[in-house]
Structure to design on (454 residues):
């Protein structure tokens, strides 16, 4: 059985929360990042994330939730987002965002696309397809920046890999779904 | 909608937001005479590099202010936040265009001192309507007219590519001013006390403009006290103001205060 309307609404609202949070993180990094090229990279992607959040926020209304509705994700994921937002070193900021958080979200979008019905949930599918294309461009732009300015490459100290493993350890980001599953199990 | 403003410093008796982060290649100054390069005989750098460098930093400051507004006011209406996010992208594009022209004209990032007063002043306000009134409705609106003199300058240099850049930036600045005007009206309608915050902000800007300007005796070139020289007034361009959402009454008031004769006006 594919996802219900309720499941879809909760997933979409949770991803909207995450994207607004990430938009705010990039926005905070813009004035606090000294390296001009990194500052401009973050600044341009603020708009990408805002558009993604907006598209998902319109979709929540179509899924019987309020317009631009957000649901906080699982607390462990909120903590991870807070930790990423608190990074001060520019190389680590770039690595955390473009090598860990965005690719991991893309994997979760693909998981959602595999689970949902492509006809019944076609509007969400279209939105996620567009987000995936934009994310690929954002990642590519971050790689091009680091190729042209190698001083922005993060060192190979395993830090990003550890963050990736931690993110992957969180099974479901939808907090309400986790709460319901726990209630059913008890 | 109010934010907690952290990281401030006092300069000539006024409280300003601390400078945004810059690379070591930039020399950040706080007094206008420290960025003053030209002489009374050649009041503008003839190569255009200084102008483009200043435009570049100005665009980056606008990016930083729009981004800080997103960070400082998470409860602002979503449609307004979308405008700020879009403005971030626009200002990035403007910054890159100016930098590309700077390099094409033989300049480099950090080649001239920079001054961050726009950020220092706007981000000192804890109120979002105050920031909109000062950045979008005052500074960006003022740039609509300032671009006319930039156009004349680069026409004189025969730099067609920079003229294209100026036209592109100008179109976006009209939109930034327009959304500032639109949202100020909506916010004040929803909370009339915001009108008081805006009035306070404008009084602060007036005071800051006086305190941050070059003071008599601070800059003397070839025996000329630059602060004592006649100020260059930029004429108000009514059609551009109308495009940017100013009402007829507001434009009439600006024209009444504008000392420039109508013959000097040339609409973009």
């Amino acid at each position: 059985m594919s996802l219900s309307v309720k499941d879809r609404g909760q997933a979409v609202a949770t991803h909207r929360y995450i994207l607004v949070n990430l938009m705010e993180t990039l926005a905070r990094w813009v004035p606090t990042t000294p390296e001009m090229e990194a500052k401009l990279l973050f600044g341009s992607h603020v708009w990408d994330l805002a558009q993604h959040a907006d598209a998902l926020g319109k979709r929540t209304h179509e899924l019987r939730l309020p317009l631009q509705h957000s649901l906080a994700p699982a607390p462990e994921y909120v903590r991870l987002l807070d930790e990423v937002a608190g990074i001060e070193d520019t190389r680590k900021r770039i690595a955390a965002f473009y090598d860990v958080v965005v690719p991991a979200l893309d994997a979760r979008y693909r998981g959602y696309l595999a689970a949902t019905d492509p006809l019944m949930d076609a509007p969400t599918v279209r939105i996620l397809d567009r987000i995936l294309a934009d994310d690929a461009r954002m990642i590519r732009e971050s790689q091009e920046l680091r190729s042209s300015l190698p001083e922005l490459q993060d060192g190979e100290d395993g830090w990003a890999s550890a963050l990736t493993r931690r993110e992957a350890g969180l099974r479901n980001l939808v907090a309400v779904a986790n709460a319901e599953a726990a209630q059913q199990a008890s | 909608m109010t934010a907690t403003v952290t990281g401030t410093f006092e300069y000539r008796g006024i409280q300003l937001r601390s400078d945004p982060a810059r690379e070591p290649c930039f020399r950040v100054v706080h007094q206008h005479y420290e960025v003053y390069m030209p002489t009374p005989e050649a009041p503008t750098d003839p190569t255009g590099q200084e102008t483009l460098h200043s435009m570049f930093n100005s665009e980056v400051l606008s990016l930083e202010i729009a981004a800080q507004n997103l960070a400082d006011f998470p409860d602002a209406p979503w449609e307004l936040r979308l405008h700020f996010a879009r403005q971030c992208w626009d200002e990035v594009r403007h910054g890159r265009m100016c930098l590309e022209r700077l390099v094409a004209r033989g300049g480099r990032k950090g080649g001239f001192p920079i001054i961050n007063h726009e950020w220092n002043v706007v981000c000192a306000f804890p109120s979002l309507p105050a920031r909109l009134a000062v950045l979008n409705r005052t500074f960006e609106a003022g740039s609509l007219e300032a671009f006319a003199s930039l156009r004349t300058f680069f026409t004189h240099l025969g730099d067609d590519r920079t003229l294209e850049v100026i036209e592109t930036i100008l179109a976006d600045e009209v939109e930034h001013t327009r959304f500032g005007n639109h949202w100020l009206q909506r916010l004040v309608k929803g909370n009339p006390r915001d009108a008081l915050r805006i009035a306070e902000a404008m009084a602060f800007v007036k005071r800051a403009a006086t305190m941050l300007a070059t003071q008599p005796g601070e800059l003397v070139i070839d025996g000329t006290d630059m602060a004592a020289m006649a100020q260059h007034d930029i004429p108000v361009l009514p059609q551009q103001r109308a495009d940017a959402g100013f009402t007829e009454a507001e434009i009439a008031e600006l024209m009444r205060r504008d000392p420039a004769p109508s013959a000097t006006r040339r609409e973009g």
About this structure: Chain B has one domain: 8-236.
